[in-house]
TrEMBL record:
Keywords: DNA replication, DNA-directed DNA polymerase, Nucleotidyltransferase, Transferase. GO terms for biological process: DNA-templated DNA replication. GO terms for cellular component: DNA polymerase III complex. This is DNA-directed DNA polymerase. The keyword Nucleotidyltransferase applies. Gene3D superfamilies: 1.20.272.10. Belongs to the DNA polymerase HolA subunit family. The keyword Ribonucleoprotein does not apply. It comes from Candidatus Woykebacteria bacterium RBG_16_39_9b. It catalyses: DNA(n) + a 2'-deoxyribonucleoside 5'-triphosphate = DNA(n+1) + diphosphate. It comes from the Bacteria. GO terms for molecular function: DNA binding; DNA-directed DNA polymerase activity.
Length: 232
């Protein structure tokens, strides 16, 4: 699998890259400044007794001509990451993931979820999937939003958000959730993440199931979720 991850929203793309790396036994990071085809091939075809899944990450490749003719058959997975948006290269990329600040993004979905607006959440998810938003990116944004919500309920809001408008929005969202509910939400998000990494399940259906699960548990009161570790 060869990924191209790029776009002006480098914060989100870095977050996506971090999550992608966590699914591999070994990660090889290479700067794209002075790369050579030989060096990259060495990384792509290196073998390890301890690592079954290896990911090679090339950051900010300066010249695609430097790796022209790169051998890719039976190679490790490869990611080309760029901090800005680039023109699509003449290279056999399997998956292009664009993090564009101008696009409607998954944060709108996260906001709708935290405000417990089920209709808007489902409509937003449908729109994101139609425009080709990666399932991993959507899931990562949802997880990030629930993390901030948990920190807010723990009294650490000022440590994560300084903007007064954002603080008020998170405080409002926090009124709709309890810590037991958030704990179950994390379990559901983690389970979905594992299923997506297995690549044996339909990403759209997995995300839809997650949204339905989150709204099911969000309707439970504190006594129902206090001592439970799974949704029944």
């Amino acid at each position: 699998m060869i990924y191209l991850v790029h776009g002006d929203d480098s914060l989100s793309s870095r977050r996506f890259l971090f999550r992608l790396k966590s699914g591999y036994d070994q990660v090889v990071d290479i700067t794209g400044k002075n790369i050579s085809k030989e060096r990259l091939e060495l990384a792509l075809f290196s073998e390890s007794l301890l690592a079954k899944k290896i990911l090679v990450v090339v950051e900010d490749l300066k010249n695609w001509q430097e790796i022209k003719g790169l051998k890719l058959n039976n190679a490790s997975d490869l990611v080309f990451w760029f901090k800005n948006k680039i023109e699509l290269p003449d290279f056999p990329i399997n998956r292009v993931i664009l993090f564009d600040l101008r696009q409607a993004n998954a944060f709108k979905l996260a906001d709708a979820l935290l405000m417990k607006n089920e209709k808007l959440s489902l409509l937003t998810l449908s729109s994101l999937l139609k425009q080709g938003e990666p399932a991993e990116k959507i899931l990562g944004t949802i997880g990030f939003a629930f993390r901030n919500l948990a920190l807010t309920l723990e009294g650490n809001l000022e440590k994560i958000v300084r903007n007064s408008y954002a603080q008020e929005k998170i405080k409002q969202q926090a009124n709709f959730w309890t810590m037991p509910q958030i704990s179950l939400a994390f379990d559901a998000i983690f389970t979905t993440d594992l299923r997506l990494r297995q690549r044996e399940h339909n990403p759209s259906m997995e995300l839809l199931a997650l949204i339905n699960t989150l709204f099911t548990l969000s309707k439970r009161d504190a006594s129902e979720v206090k001592d439970t570790n799974k949704i029944t």
